[in-house]
Amino acid sequence: MKHALLAAALLAASPAALLAPSPAAAQSPQLEQACISVAKNFLLVPSLKTGIVQSFPELDPPGARLTYSTREDPKPTDFSSEIECEFDKGQQPFRLQRFCISDTCYGPNEQDQDRRRRYLEVRALMDRQK
Fold first, then answer.
1. Signal peptide span per the entry (predicted)?
2. CA distance 58 to 69
3. Residue at 11 is within a domain
């Protein structure tokens, strides 16, 4: 009987209501800014123009990703570079766990010593900014 009632309720619901996306958690401007700071520190640039910026404070680990350009006056097609950042928690102070630029990732457990070193350098710079 319960299944029949559930089926009837689903049939009565409009198709749009069934397909409507659930409300997404708000993005985190603080996570986004932290990832922009990671990119600026890694790329050694004083400013960075961003394209699409997304943050995921509700994921484990929380993080952000964005497209960027280092050009002074970028065109929409110039935002082809991407960075992804992962942090220990979704609130400040953020502690960088890992980041990836394009297809190359940097973290504390990297086998490649140069990548591990770049991660440690960026994390040290981020820690100084607190």
1. 1-19
2. 27
3. no
